[in-house]
DNA sequence: GCACTAAGGTTGACTTAGTTG
DNA sequence: CAACTAAGTCAACCTTAGTGC
């Protein structure tokens, strides 16, 4: 899982609502990819990191950056960007 | 999990390498959100659906569309888009 | 064919307790 | 403090077997 944090593993886990006694071990396993959390826990971690849940699962570096950047845009900017890059229907065939 | 398929649940599961006898039940559980697959299985499903893994976890509709559209761009287009929308460092403070 | 489900077995995440820098 | 790990427990997923459309 793609975790980009500024806090310690333990602090992040506690912030995400994990029991302080287990936060360190669990976040460590997630960050190293030994274990994977359930989606609810992943969602809480994402909220604490202020990134979209999808960002944690972005395997491609550029896509990860795009997800972060897109998330920062205003609703209007998102709509304009989508209009720019989404393929128009009825073109390919 | 965000699954947008054109095949049947069973067909998708088989295509993703699941045992034909269990493909239907498992994909059904994933699609309805009753169970979640491990990341390796999710990755195989994403490949079959020809979407990035992150797309399956996009909770926001616009972000989901953006991920799909971004994935279709050429490497050069991706880099140009990132240059456009990524916040420049040193502006906020 | 399709989507969907309950019950029980089994695997892997979770807790505990600990080491190391 | 921090990052990281092994071992045993048990919840969550997987399999089986089945329903109804």
From TrEMBL, chains A, B:
UniProt superkingdom: Bacteria
Gene3D superfamilies membership: lambda repressor-like DNA-binding domains
Pfam families: HTH_3
Domain HTH cro/C1-type, residue spans: 1-56
Database matches in InterPro entries: Cro/C1-type_HTH, Lambda_DNA-bd_dom_sf
Gene Ontology MF terms: DNA binding
Name the record gives this protein: Transcriptional regulator
Organism, scientific name: Luteibacter yeojuensis
